[in-house]
Design brief:
Length: 171
């Protein structure tokens, strides 16, 4: 009983703190939120239009067309967010691995995808973007999926300490 009374008192004091904030602050905050959302919706529409224009010129069923599609998927995996770029919501590593598998399956080279990425995204460098978004182990996975189509074997580090063998496996 005393705990629920204390919780109720704490919640009412928090609620009272919000009553002192002027309505204008809420209106300005909502305006900023709507503006950020609209800018990102427009940005996504521009990205889609850029992709569609490239596909119309290149053709969807060509290697270059497939590389264009894969480049847009990689960009989406790294930067597709309704939040501004200065407030990242995370990289979709699984999508990056799936794209790498598709590249392996259809024999689309990294260089071709990188060239299309650079054309679509104002000179951005695919490798630099991937390196900024993925850690060393995730990059190893991505390259393995690209080269073999499958997940890499775990790294095993073997050493000896005072006559004992020590194996450390890193997934």
């Amino acid at each position: 009983m005393a705990a629920s009374l204390a919780l109720g008192t704490a919640l009412s004091s928090v609620g009272g703190a919000f009553k002192s904030i002027p309505k204008e602050v809420y209106i300005i905050g909502a305006g900023i939120g709507v503006t950020v959302l609209l800018v990102n919706v427009i940005k996504k529409a521009a990205d889609k239009a850029r992709y569609n224009a490239a596909i119309n010129v290149i053709g969807k069923d060509t290697k270059k067309g497939m590389a264009t599609m894969l480049a847009t998927q990689l960009y989406s995996a790294m930067y597709n967010s309704v939040l501004p770029t200065w407030f990242p919501d995370g990289t979709n590593e699984v999508l990056i691995y799936k794209v790498a598998q598709e590249m392996h399956k259809h024999q689309i080279t990294f260089d071709l995808v990188s060239d299309q990425y650079k054309k679509l995204y104002s000179g951005r460098q695919l490798l630099s973007d991937l390196e900024s978004e993925l850690d060393e182990n995730e990059m190893r996975y991505m390259w393995s999926y690209l080269e073999t189509g499958s997940k890499p074997a775990p790294l095993v580090h073997e050493s000896r300490l005072n006559g004992f063998e020590i194996n450390i496996t890193l997934a």
